[in-house]
Amino acid sequence: MSDDLFPEATWISLDEVSQILDVPVNKVRQLIAEGAIASLRVGEPPAPRIPAEFFQDGVIVKNLGGTLTVLADSGFNNEDALRWLFTADETLPGTPIQALREDRGREVRRRAQSLAF
């Protein structure tokens, strides 16, 4: 997996996420396992990385975990979910991750739910 697949994402390490959230790295791994945030192996050498856009003001962007759950329930793997979150949607407008950062989670979740049908 190459980070050029998502050029609009700013990839950060698990250590950087632990600093942002002020939690141990093990807690970051737990958040990934629980689906609260998503990671991909990117960079050289490939290592687990998380988009910096998932965080705002020292916390996880509101409604991100719920949106990731809806996408997973629709059959999306992490790469597919990230692609969807970072792909422009003219009906929002912008990308779903931008809309989540702007506290427009209801709009994003409605679009994510429609993907299952």
Please supply descriptive tags for the structure shown above.
117 residues, three-stranded antiparallel beta sheet
What's the total number of strands? 5
User: Can you list the strand order of the major beta sheet?
Assistant: 1-3-2
The pLDDT mean sits at 91
Q: Which word captures the global form?
A: globular
SSE succession: EHHEEEEHHHH
First and last CA, distance: 28 Å
Domain DNA-binding protein Rv2175c wHTH: 3-55
InterPro entries: Rv2175c_C (IPR041098), Rv2175c_wHTH (IPR048576)
Domain Rv2175c C-terminal: 61-116
Pfam family, one: Rv2175c_C
Describe this structure in words.
With 117 residues, this protein is an alpha+beta fold. It has one domain. The protein is built from six helices and five strands. It has helices at 14-21, 25-34, 64-73, 78-85, 96-101, 105-114, and strands at 11-13, 40-42, 47-51, 55-56, 59-60. A three-stranded antiparallel β-sheet has the order 1-3-2. A hairpin with a 2-residue loop joins strand 4 (55-56) and strand 5. Helix 1 (14-21) packs across helix 2 (25-34) and helix 3 (64-73) runs parallel beside helix 6. The longest helix has 10 residues, at 25-34. The chain is globular and about 35 Å long.
Give a short synopsis of this structure.
The chain is of the alpha+beta class and 117 residues long.
Chain-wise SSE layout:
Blueprint: E1 11-13, H1 14-21, H2 25-34, E2 40-42, E3 47-51, E4 55-56, E5 59-60, H3 64-73, H4 78-85, H5 96-101, H6 105-114
Antiparallel strand pairs: 1-3, 2-3, 4-5
Helix pairs in contact: 1-2, 3-6
